[in-house]
Amino acid sequence: MPKFAANLSMLYPEHAFLDRFAAAARDGFRAVEFLFPYEHEPRELAARLQDHGLQQVLFNAPPGDWNGGERGLACLAGREAEFRAGIADALRYAQALACPRVHVMAGLVPDGQERAALRATYVANVRWAAAEAARQGVNLLLEPINTRDIPRFFLNRQDHAHELVQEIGAANVQVQMDLYHCQIVEGDVAMKIRQYLPTGRVGHFQIAGVPQRHEPDLGELNYDYLFGVIDEVSAACGWDGWIGCEYRPARGPAAGGTSQGLGWLRKWR
């Protein structure tokens, strides 16, 4: 049976961030993820998790100047010191929150540069970060993201991500397989689940409806079918990870909007 984690950066927008933990627990979630924890003290977040019986399963390492448009530092030459400081900060939070996974955002391809020229920097940075994370028992995730939502993002395709994981060669580096991004860039989602999940290189799934990024039962993807594929393949290969609900509720910040849109989830409990 698939296990679902509420993404608190997107779900329950009618509540202040720290109040979203309680809202997720009330709806029966047992795990959460979010983009970034760094505006809050680790002990404050840990208390919310404990108070509501929630497990933290994922968050992102610092992305650089997010408000200024940066989307990660891993591929950017000359930013290595900042990248390393960000990984240290992420691992501090991971320890405090007992979180086993951290997503390392790849970054944007600078104007006038080719993606291939950034590969060596990316591999070296992630390889260094993996060694640091391994000391804490933390896995690092690499996520292909579509270029419609984030133009010029370094990593876009599942095959590219898996090639990089193999090149980096660290047992604690895996792929974050977001089916929303995968559908937009590549399609053929069910076959990609069947291809990649048995490899052991998929550490986490995320979902959203395509194209509006609303609830998974809205849009062109048949998630009931895809959850069945994940269940079938997981049973065969022993995968026991989480599926992050990283979507924007169609009802927006209306009171109870996220909860009202969870009909799709109740079928899988």
Automatic annotation (TrEMBL):
UniProt keyword Acetylation, yes or no: no
Keywords: Isomerase, Pyruvate
Signal peptide: none
Molecular function in Gene Ontology: hydroxypyruvate isomerase activity
GO BP term, pick one: glyoxylate metabolic process
Active-site annotation: 143 (proton donor/acceptor), 246 (proton donor/acceptor)
UniProt-listed Pfam families: AP_endonuc_2 (PF01261)
Record-annotated Xylose isomerase-like TIM barrel domain positions: 21-267
Keyword Chloroplast: no
Family: Belongs to the hyi family.
Protein name: Hydroxypyruvate isomerase family protein
Species name: Ramlibacter agri
Lineage: Bacteria, Pseudomonadati, Pseudomonadota, Betaproteobacteria, Burkholderiales
